[in-house]
Amino acid sequence: MVSGGRTPTAACVGLFLATGFAACAARQSANPFIIRKGGGSIHVGNHRPSPSATTRQDVARAAQDAMAKRGADRPAALRSIEQVDPKLRESLAVLARGATPATHVAVAANYWRLRVYDAAYTHYDDAVRLDKKDAAALEGRARVWRQWGLNTWALSDVHRSLFYEPKNPEALNTLGTILQQAGQCVEARTAYAAALRLKPDADWARENLGRLICVGTTNQRSHVDDQITSRAITSTTQSKR
């Protein structure tokens, strides 16, 4: 028994509770994030007050001025290829006056020359839509398919072109290039040779035939090929004289 009639156990409990409350109070005052009763603000370190409305307006105005200055200093826009190339520009002007298969093919040929293959395809395709038998458009579209590595579509178009114009050396040369790309060396050689028979001075067909390398074959040129090439060289030499 202790004074006041309390047991030692009760005294210990009371001492523990008093100590715990004191510790909680100490932690609460030390931690600025504990919500406390009573008035007064909670200080959270070096907290900066939010900018005033005037300051925000000044910042926004400064940002707008900076953007306006960058826009004024921006270089002039680059001219498009349609503006730069006179032949393309002229063919587009003709097309604007009247869309025909021929005007579409002319525009496509200029895009092909400039290696803008997607635009070239679009106009070759437009020409075929206007005339499904337009051999020039079909041959041109076949070259675009070949450029994209789509040999099946390319062969389909070039064979259609040759169906309508079987004696077209340009189409036969295109056929040879597609066959060569597809790995059909013997057939490609036959196509080049046929083009040279029709046009002995066709340098492009003769060069393709001369560069042709047949993998997995004897790689020997036929006697007919040699005769065709010889005649083509002779014809070209005589014409220069």
Explain the overall architecture:
With 241 residues, this protein is mostly helical. Among the domains are: 81-166, Serine Threonine Protein Phosphatase 5, Tetratricopeptide repeat (Alpha Horseshoe), CATH 1.25.40.10; 184-241. It is built from twelve helices and no strands. The radius of gyration is 43 Å and the shape is elongated. It starts with 7 loop residues before the first helix and ends with a helix. Residues 28-45 and 217-241 have low confidence and may be disordered.
Pick out its properties.
241 residues; disordered C terminus; mainly alpha; Serine Threonine Protein Phosphatase 5, Tetratricopeptide repeat
What's a concise summary of this model?
The protein has 241 residues and is an all-alpha fold.
Query: Could you spell the SSE succession in H and E letters?
Result: HHHHHHHHHHHH
Q: Under CATH, the topology of the domain at 81-166 is which?
A: Serine Threonine Protein Phosphatase 5, Tetratricopeptide repeat
How many helical elements?
Answer: 12
| Form type | elongated
Distance between the termini: 141 Å
Structural class by SSE content = mainly alpha
Task: Give the SSE layout.
Elements: H1 8-30, H2 53-73, H3 81-84, H4 86-97, H5 101-113, H6 117-130, H7 135-147, H8 151-164, H9 169-181, H10 185-198, H11 203-211, H12 223-240
Helix pairs in contact: 4-5, 5-6, 5-7, 6-7, 7-8, 7-9, 8-9, 9-10, 10-11, 10-12
